Amino acid sequence: MAVSLLAHAHYAWLVTASLLAGAVNAVASGGSFISFPAMLAMGVAPVQANATNTVAIWPGQLTSVFALRGDLRKDLLTVAVLCAISGGIGGAEILLHTPQSMFLHILPWMILAATVLFLFAGRISAWLKRGASHAHKDRPISMIALTAMLLPVCLYVGYFGAGGGLLIMAALGVLGVEAMHELNSMKVLVACIANLSAVVTFVVSNSVAWHYCLIAMVFAGLGGYVGAHYARRLPAAAMRAMVIAVGFAVSGWFFWVAHTRT
User: Fold this and answer.
1) pLDDT tens digit string along 9-56?
2) Number of H helices, E strands in the chain
3) pTM for this prediction
């Protein structure tokens, strides 16, 4: 009886976490900090939980690409797409060949780093906006430099991904993509393709816990729809604060779990 109630409680938490993750991603980003631990709570091994979570939250990115397609930098598309595909596949393959115990020890550091990155996202965005006020529209961007900056970021997106969008924007901003609408559209496209490449890799390698993935996918999509609908009515600052608090709490919990399993 107690085991049955616990199993139902885990499902209830997966549904709730997926709804929250979809809503948070629509408002402030960072929903993986909520949905990924819920996958682990279902008893999915860490590497498979990360793969399953990536597949579950990807469809919501596709609509954003369609909405922002008019702002894409056409001159950067070929290299950006190639980096996203190769980086997404490479990162996913590295993840699948990472031992569960090693990933469990790396995981809290990645979550902590992504949380700190999210914490300072406003300052980084302000820096990018200051650069936009001194735009050099004719400044050429080296495709070699673009590859060197973007490929490692896409590897990270395929491997874990939390905070990857901000890293993409920072890399493009350093190279001279200065208009915020172009930065945002390119970020969405690169992240979407890198995650799609990872998704295909995870599916082909049979690394997805589909029973949990489909539940999370449905409710994350619902949460994303509701979150997008009410995004302007919700206090974004409070949502960001919640994401940061959850990120620090989750990283601390995984530090404790990794320590107890050594």
Assistant:
1) 678 889 998 888 877 776 666 778 788 888 888 888 888 998 998 888
2) 12, 0
3) 0.74
